Amino acid sequence: MNKKELKDFLDEKVLLYNQTSFIQSDPIQIPRLFTTKEDIEIAGFLVATIAWGNRKSIINNGNRLMDMMGNSPFDFIMNYSEKDLEDLSSFVHRTFNGDDLTYFMKALRNIYLKHNGLEAVFALHAEKQSLQMAIHEFKKVFFSIPHLPRTQKHVSDPLKNSAAKRINMYLRWMVRPGNTGVDFGIWNSLSPAQLSCPLDVHSGNVARKLKLLKRKQNDGKALAELDAALRKLDPMDPVKYDFALFGLGAFEKF
Description:
Layout: H1 3-17, H2 37-49, H3 55-68, H4 73-79, H5 82-87, H6 98-114, H7 118-124, H8 132-142, H9 165-175, H10 201-209, H11 220-233, H12 241-250
Helix pairs in contact: 1-12, 2-9, 7-8, 10-12
């Protein structure tokens, strides 16, 4: 395919998968349970954090986590007691356990009390065409209070050559306009032009087959290469192609 044919093909797949029907099999359904900004962004951040492995397990554990927080994430973050934190100790999703979750509660409270919330932290170091430095700086703020070293592995750092798939997915949810019913578009201080594709096995394999990506590992260098290719197709909204790449890989076995 030449560039125009490739763009037309991918644009068609974006329209196919960027639909509300996509939500029923995707972890984004967890933050979709809520209507207020803070509830959406907290629920989204937590479920994005555990978004690896079996999608059904991610969704089940996401629902369980919301139940443990009384289905009021922001209220829980701001008002939890020590007993409430103890009740979280039984939570496990793969290597993310109750100790990690307890710290996440404390770190999120610190961000809302001392740093004006999640959006403000990510927006502070945003660059014109990238949020990778913003993710790096976010991690520093997130772990700025006492914590177990093991918990740091659950927030990726692009400056350590991570593709940061889960945080880039979370940022897509928060920033891309919600007019198709999938993403939320509730963070107005950032723009879709700054977003990066959530690079995973599906999107990476499809990108290589379409010659959008040469690098074999799904790491930070591969993400930069894929970003550059997608920005040539649509500089204003490059990450919309996540729907096409993921859909082709996960649903069409492309």
